[in-house]
Specification:
alpha/beta; Rossmann fold; 5-stranded parallel beta sheet; 10 helices; 7 strands; 14% strand; globular
């Protein structure tokens, strides 16, 4: 086995299948795509609000209202809340078994580091149980920081008592992986369009964990 002491998972698109875009979120919520709400300008406006929300800087009520306004004003707060709830879909097949295998290793801990919000976070215990098997669970809204800010990686290292070269990190967003690598983490990009579990198993083998 190598020097990895912590295997750290992002949640959405690594452990959990989520909607790929606004159009899919609308479809799953039973709502139409209206106006220009799925175009780049609206997506960028929502992304800025997401970051504030995911770091605990606004209430649920304010977030739903502002997202509706950012989506070309075509959605009211209740509709945005439905889309928000529908965004989380299901655990990827086989990911719970993979987490169990890592948890059974004598010197390796599992951990979660996700950019998310409290309304989604509380659902992982009962609805999306793969994440509940992970030993150490941390998220942006708990830290008040979000990836790829280097401060969240430093805060995580303190919480799990590990240095960057002892952490193997999986995330679907290239910028998050690159930021982790800058701090010495062993970090790999996961493509949710392919089988995330197969990709992670390959990386875990290459890094000497499995």
């Amino acid at each position: 086995m190598g020097d990895v002491r912590v295997v750290c998972f992002d949640w959405g698109n690594v452990v959990l299948r989520i909607c790929k875009d606004w159009a899919e979120g609308c479809e799953r919520a039973g709502l139409p795509v209206r106006g220009k709400s799925n175009q780049k300008k609206a997506q960028e406006a929502r992304a800025k609000l997401d970051r504030r929300y995911q770091t605990g800087q606004m209430s649920d009520k304010a977030y739903f209202r502002l997202i509706g306004e950012a989506s070309d004003g075509k959605y009211d707060a209740d509709e945005v809340e439905k889309i928000h709830h529908a965004w989380l879909i299901e655990d990827f097949e086989g990911v719970d078994q993979l987490i169990d295998e890592i948890n059974d290793l004598p010197r390796v801990a599992t951990s979660l580091l996700s950019n998310t919000n409290n309304l989604h976070w509380v659902r992982r215990e009962e609805e999306f149980t793969a994440a509940s098997k992970i030993e150490h669970q941390w998220a942006s809204h708990l830290f008040g920081l979000a990836k790829p800010d280097e401060k969240i990686y430093a805060a995580f290292e303190r919480r799990v008592s590990a240095s960057g070269d002892q952490i193997l990190f999986f995330d679907d967003i290239k910028a998050n992986v690159e930021a982790a690598r800058e701090l010495g983490w062993l970090a790999e990009v996961i493509n949710p369009a392919k089988d995330p579990v197969d990709q992670m198993r390959s990386h875990l083998s290459r890094h000497g964990v499995l």
